[in-house]
Amino acid sequence: MCDGAALQRPLDGPPGMLAAQFAHLAACADQPHIQIQVVPADTPVYPGLQGGFILATLPDGSTVAHLDHQVRAQVVAECEDIATLQKTWESIHGQALPCRQSLHLLTEAAQRWT
Questions:
Q1: Of 7, 23, 69, 88, which residue has the fewest beta carbons closer than 10 angstroms?
Q2: What pTM was computed for the model?
Q3: What end-to-end distance do the CA atoms of the chain give, in Å?
Q4: Residue (of 112, 104, 109) closest to 37 by Cα position
Q5: 67-97, pLDDT tens digit by residue?
Q6: For the range 29-32, what are the long-range contacts, defined as Cβ-Cβ under 8 Å and sequence gap of 24 or more?
Q7: Where's the DUF5753 domain (predicted)?
């Protein structure tokens, strides 16, 4: 999942860096096991802005989450926390564009930053 505002925010770095990164993401989206979705930049405040996280299902069927914070990362396995993060994921997913439209935005961003 990608926040659409990140496709518009300039970064310091060599010319063409953002174009190359967005082009790489678009190329990755051709892989059958990779889906990239963008939450449009004009979306009002939504739960995804609270910070990044990864939900992972382990071989034993349990689910854990990896939370990214500014100071450190945290692994969470408590059922209530996982349930909250799953609801957050569903909310973010509901705000995101379908994969094809997201890929189009990535391609446009790559061209814009060339």
A1: 69
A2: 0.83
A3: 23
A4: 104
A5: 988 889 999 999 999 999 999 999 999 999 9
A6: 29/99, 29/102, 29/103, 29/106
A7: 3-108
Cα torsion angle, 73, 79, 84, 86, sign: positive
What lies within 8 Å, CB to CB, of 46 at 6+ separation is 39, 91, 92, 95
Tokens 């609801």 sit on residue: 87
* Every domain of the chain and the residues it spans: 1-40+97-114, 43-96
List the beta strands (DSSP E) in the chain.
2-3, 38-39, 53-57, 63-68, 73-76
Structure-block tokens of residue 91? 């909310």
